[in-house]
Amino acid sequence: SLVVLFGATAGAYGAKLGSDERELILLVWQVVDLHSKKVGTLHKSLVKADNLDLSDQCREISGLTAEGLGKAEPLDRVLQQFSQLVSSDLKVLGRSSYTLCSDGQLLIRQVLHPETSKKNFLLSDCFYSFYDLRKEFHTCYPSSAAVKDQTIKTMAEYLGLGTDEAEEDFGVWQVKTMVAIIFSMLSEGCNHIFTEPETVKYKYETGPCSKSETVDSETVIRARGLPWQSSDQDIARFFKGLNIAKGGVALCLNSQGRRNGEALVRFVNSEQRDLALERHKHHMGSRYIEVYKATGEEFLKIAGGTSNEVAQFLSKENQVIIRMRGLPFTATQEDVLGFLGPECPVTGGKEGLLFVKYPDGRPTGDAFVLFSCEEYAQNALKKHKEILGKRYIELFRSTAAEVQQVLNRYMSTPLIPTLPTPIIPVIPPPYTIATGSIRDCVRLRGLPYTAGIDDILEFMGDATGDIKPHGVHMVLNQQGRPSGDAFIQMKSADKAFMVAQKCHKKMMKDRYVEVFQCSGEEMNFVLMGGTLNRSGLSPPPCKLPCLSPPAYAAFQTAAVIPAEAAALYQPQALLPTTRTPQASAAAPPTVTYYPAQAAQLYMNYTAYYPSPPVSPTTVGYIAAPPGAVAAAATATHTPILPQPGALVRMQGLPYNTGMKEILSFFQGYQYAPDDYNGLIQLSDQARSVLQAPKEWVCL
């Protein structure tokens, strides 16, 4: 038997049904016995929605009113009545089982499943399997219109059935016409058999994904704006009613290994993906979620893995994964199992634990744990921020894709001692950022986030020639992204005044940019992390000097100067003398490293805001072009480290640590004698490259 089902919401109708998140207000159904071709009683039931504000389209098409719906039963009661009445009609017809049949998939997938999920009650099993009348009709009549273009009216017109909707109430005509279409398909000329129903997955299945898999780009979407604590199950619940592929939810992580509010979701086919796109700006709690198309390459980049250890760990399917963060580096498997306790047993004991390590085997403080059921996982999450050893441990829900991402990130990290390929060193310019009160700088506010140095130079127009060398400073926020602000050092206060007058509120791309005259002192405050507003200067969070461009003195080599840059400086400025520990030893000059395009006069990208504390990875190097490598090969280089072990790195220092505390810490050890320049405090840019908090390098 079939139960022909039709419904309507308080909002959009037809092809957009369910796309606006409006609630169900009408259900109409009738039982059809496919063998005897008999029908049961036609039932129509109004549904009381939480929001009775009907759209104009809904009022016009359905003829329903808020007053009438206010007297109806809520959805959970209506669904109970539905089950009872269907069972009664089946008993009269001598049948016991049935399958739903609806006009398309929107009512089941985009309305009933999402709404009941949000209202926290379960649908009966009959709503997880149904026939799509449009697909069945096209199978029976291949010459008819495409499935996506079918409607009840076009199918009836194709068969020559009556299509006067005004003769019946809204919903009643639709169900009666659908029943007539089904009987036509069952006639001797067609003898159509309903054999392959559409299915809705009961729950999301976790599982690993290999980088060698082929992922169709027509099945992947990107969800943006997710709560940071959301799990793969939360995302699957947001897409309730749609079939997500096994292991198809990949939560994206930022450069610090934390979730960034985005996820890539892979569906079983393109039809499900297209339905998912209709949930753009639907809500997860109080947040709306943006849904966009994505590619299979993007999904594999996030979710794919190659590690056999990870594959073996994730081979246990349908497990709940919990991520532990902040473990002591000395923690063992027994320590973790003891921390979790008997109330949340780990699947497979020690085999259900996966410690994340660096390539050299050092622990990162992260681990993943498998639990066989939701109850055990919930018990484990209750231990969030409890103490293990002397550290509190953070516990979060995780996914198979996050396991792959974290392992890929750490295992692909080269060791710090690994030296780079030859790089282009550029001598630091013989000037420093102005620190006085002379107002020879301008501040640009409201820049497009995509604006670069070239855009600013174009924006400045003829005034570009009045900019000091390396005088354009892009200000980045704490996430390392453009903040929309920039500072420019002009050759004089008059030039800065003229630029502010000429360029204020001038358009750059689709935004106007504000231009203010300011002093070098004010600029330094902002570049060091302070704020500049109408009420005056707010001091930066730290008093450390922020040089531009910063020098990283740990690596020294012979200077290679672009020809066009050499003309800008005097010969004595190119090779400045440096104070040496011993009078007889001559040290090479300290150099600053820039990309090849750094020969441009104005370039100066620097993250001036302090980087957030994260796990250190490695020093980033910039590879030289082939020509520079060949030139460097013919030059005589001074060894980077003249003696093995001459350089040590300190991490985890208090932020108020000074030179005195460093020297006291190393009391009893011999460092570079009589030369406190052996203590090199890393600038903000160098610290952001190292991706670690405040550090010192000792020679």
From TrEMBL:
Signal peptide: none annotated. It comes from Rhabdornis inornatus. The lineage of its organism: Eukaryota, Metazoa, Chordata, Craniata, Vertebrata. PROSITE patterns: RRM. Residues 320-400 form the RRM domain. SUPFAM superfamilies: Ribonuclease H-like (SSF53098), RNA-binding domain, RBD (SSF54928). One of its GO terms (biological process) is mRNA processing. CDD domains: RRM2_ESRP2, RRM3_ESRP1_ESRP2. GO terms for molecular function: RNA binding. It is found in: Nucleus. This is Epithelial splicing regulatory protein 2. Its main location: nucleus. One of its GO terms (cellular component) is nucleus. The keyword Cell membrane does not apply. Belongs to the ESRP family. The keyword RNA-binding applies. InterPro entries: ESRP, Nucleotide-bd_a/b_plait_sf, RBD_domain_sf, RNaseH-like_sf, RNaseH_sf, RRM_dom. Keywords: mRNA processing, mRNA splicing, Nucleus, Repeat, RNA-binding. PANTHER family: HETEROGENEOUS NUCLEAR RIBONUCLEOPROTEIN-RELATED (PTHR13976).
